[in-house]
């Protein structure tokens, strides 16, 4: 008999929008089903307070992973952590952790993660964007985009990866963007940071692969999150029209791709685009 579906409502509070209810339909594992390869693995996810990072945390918790949620807002992370206990084999709330800080600051990583060897999977989803031409963008904005998106990813890999090196195994998944491969008006620093994430991932896959650590990158197109809610309606319509599938992706579709990369033992140096076909245009 197949397991019975259960519906669970997670209360999620993105800071910039009203409180939505997200319905997560899942199946409880039957006693005879084999355990997920992610069961009791320690998954560190940056940008876990909302959007893609939160969807990845939810998906991995469903598989029995124990999450460390990273973001800058403790209250929101606590709320996400509370929701994880309610999904699939999400475990008990106290089995997940939160770490509050700025991923672009080396001190955050050194203070919380130096010497820690229990993290099996690192997913770098924290990111910020800007929408302004280079010539009118403040230098401080250019710096903060690069510091968060590129330096944040490299610092996390450097400190958390040290623990993986000691264990001679680990899995790192970085989240880049199609803008890192294709140009786009008003996104010079963002595009540069994401091109950097792709180049960095490939170089690290060569270095770390031979030490048992797999490193891959997901390259999303437009995904329905807070990050794109500020798009003017006309830009949104133009973007939708350009996508062969005529819709934006969902955070859970990115989470499914992350799960594939996390569980496929031969995946290393994958540059996995998920853009509804936009990169073909
Ligand atoms: N949505 C898209 O269309 C799209 C497309 C391609 C790529 N991406 C990439 O996918 C990733 C996730 O994007 P999203 O759409 O889910 O964005 P989002 O909804 O705006 O979420 C961004 C996340 O990053 C965290 N964050 C930002 N700066 C941080 C910092 N300095 N330190 C720690 N955490 C920080 C935020 O947490 P707090 O603000 O609570 O700290 C939040 O959890 C990003 O790397 C983004 O560039 C998104």
Automatic annotation (TrEMBL):
Species, as recorded: Hymenoscyphus albidus
Name of this chain's protein: Ketoreductase domain-containing protein
Taxonomy, superkingdom: Eukaryota
Keywords: NADP, Oxidoreductase
PROSITE patterns per record: ADH_SHORT (PS00061)
GO BP annotation list: fatty acid biosynthetic process
Molecular function (Gene Ontology), one example: oxidoreductase activity, acting on the CH-OH group of donors, NAD or NADP as acceptor
SUPFAM superfamilies, per database record: NAD(P)-binding Rossmann-fold domains
Family assignment from sequence similarity: Belongs to the short-chain dehydrogenases/reductases (SDR) family.
Keyword NADP: yes
Stored InterPro entries: KR_dom (IPR057326), NAD(P)-bd_dom_sf (IPR036291), Sc_DH/Rdtase_CS (IPR020904), SDR_fam (IPR002347)
Keyword match NADP: yes
Domain Ketoreductase: 41-226
């Amino acid at each position: 008999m197949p397991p019975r579906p259960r519906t669970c409502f997670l209360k999620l509070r993105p800071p910039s929008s009203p409180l939505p209810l997200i319905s997560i339909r899942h199946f409880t594992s039957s006693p005879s089903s084999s355990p997920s390869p992610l069961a009791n693995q320690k998954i560190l996810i940056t940008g876990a307070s909302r959007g893609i990072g939160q969807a990845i945390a939810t998906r991995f918790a469903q598989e029995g992973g124990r999450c460390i949620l990273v973001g800058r807002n403790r209250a929101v992370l606590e709320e996400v952590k509370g929701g994880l206990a309610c999904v699939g084999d999400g475990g008990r709330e106290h089995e997940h952790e939160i770490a509050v800080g700025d991923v672009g600051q080396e001190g955050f990583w050194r203070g919380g993660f130096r010497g820690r060897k229990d993290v099996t999977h690192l997913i770098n989803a924290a990111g910020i964007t800007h929408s302004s031409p280079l010539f009118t963008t403040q230098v401080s904005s250019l710096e903060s985009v690069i510091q968060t998106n590129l330096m944040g990813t490299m610092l996390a890999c450097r400190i958390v990866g040290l623990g993986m090196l000691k264990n001679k195994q680990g899995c790192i998944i970085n989240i880049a963007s199609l803008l890192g491969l294709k140009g786009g008006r008003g996104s010079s620093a963002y595009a540069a940071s994401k091109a950097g994430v792709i180049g960095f991932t490939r170089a690290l896959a060569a270095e770390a692969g031979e030490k048992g650590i797999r490193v891959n990158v997901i390259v999303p197109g437009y995904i329905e999150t807070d990050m794109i809610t500020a798009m003017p309606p006309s830009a949104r319509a133009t973007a939708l029209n350009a996508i062969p599938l005529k819709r934006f992706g969902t955070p859970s579709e990115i989470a499914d791709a992350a799960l594939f990369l996390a569980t496929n033992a031969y995946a290393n140096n994958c540059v996995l685009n998920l853009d509804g076909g936009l990169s073909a245009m």
